[in-house]
Amino acid sequence: MSKPLYKRVLLKLSGEALAGDKGFGLDTDTVNSIAIQIKELMELQVEVAVVVGGGNFWRGRTGEGMDRTTADYMGMLATVINGLALQDALENIGVLTRVQTAIEMRQIAEPYIRRRAVRHLEKNRIVIFAAGTGNPYFSTDTTAALRAAEIEAEVILLAKKVDAVYDKDPNEFDDAKKFDELSYIDVLKLGLKVMDSTATSLCMDNKIPIKVFGLDNPENIKKIIFGEQIGTYIHN
Ligand code: UDP
């Protein structure tokens, strides 16, 4: 059997990815399926850190008329709900997991400590990063870029509802063009809605490649790990 291409990866799961077809909240079957896919990576000795989003419950921009900082803290709390749900699903199938939060809530999870996170990964535990960066005005995509740089992940696996990056919404336009490969600069210049510009710049400056793919096929993560070209590859 061929060997995995990566030793340490950062998987970004948007809140939407955890909501399945429900579009809101958590879909148990979807969360369980993702947990199984993560377990498969762990069994291949790939170290997996996960950043969870929160958009299935709340996004800062949902709180129109609210104080932005308050609305963003609500979003960060939403990511903690998702982190705990994923931890539970992983532990149910026997995977050792630690949740680390960027905002201290010690009764619930460990605080984020980089060295400790790396140590967990080395022990083949799955580390789930929740509460974003701990700062308002940021996104969990930026969190993914930041944590990937900090823990020296080789790649960000960006799980999306759509199977790749397109020049326009493929659900709306039949002639939407799919990109197999893109540079960070293209993403920024073309204003492609893959990640926000802060996250894209951080990846560009730190040379962290991104694989964008859909969770529609439960084999996709494994395919990427073994180097199969699916979705969109964003790099320098
Ligand atoms: N958020 C934040 N700072 C961070 C990460 C997230 O303020 O470092 C807030 C922000 O309001 C965001 C919400 O948490 O809208 C949920 O995160 P995001 O929208 O990135 O989730 P996703 O779209 O991935 O589900």
From TrEMBL:
The keyword Ribosomal protein does not apply. ATP binds at K12, L13, S14, G15, G55, R59, Y166, D169. Keywords: Allosteric enzyme, ATP-binding, Cytoplasm, Kinase, Nucleotide-binding, Pyrimidine biosynthesis, Transferase. Allosterically activated by GTP. Inhibited by UTP. UMP binds at G54, D72, T133, G134, N135, P136, Y137, F138, S139, T140. The gene is pyrH. Its EC number is 2.7.4.22. It comes from Serpentinicella alkaliphila. Residues 20-25 are annotated as: Involved in allosteric activation by GTP. Pathway: Pyrimidine metabolism; CTP biosynthesis via de novo pathway; UDP from UMP (UMPK route): step 1/1. This is Uridylate kinase.
